[in-house]
Amino acid sequence: MSSDSAVTQPVRGTQTLVDQMGWVFRRPSLTALEILWRWTIGVPFLLLCRRQLNHVFSVLTPDAAGWNALDGQNPWVAVRQIYVIVGKYEPIVFAAFHWLLPLGVVAWIVFSGLGRALVLKRLEPSVRYRPFTVITLQTAWVALLAVVLWSWLRTVQWAALTHIQQPGEPDLVGFAIWLIFLSLGFFSLWALASWPAAVAPVLAVKENRGAASALLASFRLGKAFTSQLMEIDLVMGIVKLALIVLTMVFSAAPLPFSDQLGPEALHMVTMAALVFFMVSSDYFHVVRLKALIEFWRTYRGSEA
Length: 304
What we know:
The protein contains 13 helices and no strands. Helix 8 packs across helix 11.
């Protein structure tokens, strides 16, 4: 079948996703490579975060902050107490993390650029290994994510001010509704809006473009190609939500047997559930990258 006829036929991201999942599953070295670069930066960063948290709790212990005085019988009173406790911790947390978070962001950009370029090279052996271009594009991806997260935090802050910090009794139900609505809304927005930064590395290596050229080209892919990118990103967002739910179910399943198993066994089950989530998430990152390459072949392969 020619490339022109392939383009004219309808191609659905959800229809080809199962094929890409099977293709990646039969090549576990790709997922292992994705896990390697993500955990190489992620594990040390989490250990540093844990060390800083221990420092925070050594400066202001939970008992001194008032966690042991929470009213477990009245959630409306407990919410106000938690607000006061968080206010006590805010300056200490900022002092402990003000240098770690920027350092973590820079390290993530560098490692993700190196790792993503290497995975692309393994997926497409004919392309050049272009880590610096992918690092630049990962910077744009992180910047877009920062905007979405900042917008989510600002809207959640508005919901808290209007429903919890209002005079009188806090409106916990209203705040919970807004929190769920805003969280799912921004999660969906990220899934629908992150496709330019996601496909730009593919354009860079497959079409031998610079970072700026690849990012600009990602906005001019045509309606058919763009719709498939948005669909596949939305599907991947739904998959991520499903993995989160499965992880919660797996970690909570032994709770009815907590007396027989003991706390150590419960901790082991929780850790196993978290590892399952991270490995599965890394696997689907490779699946999405493979799907983006196949869409490029369908819609732009004849132009290269």
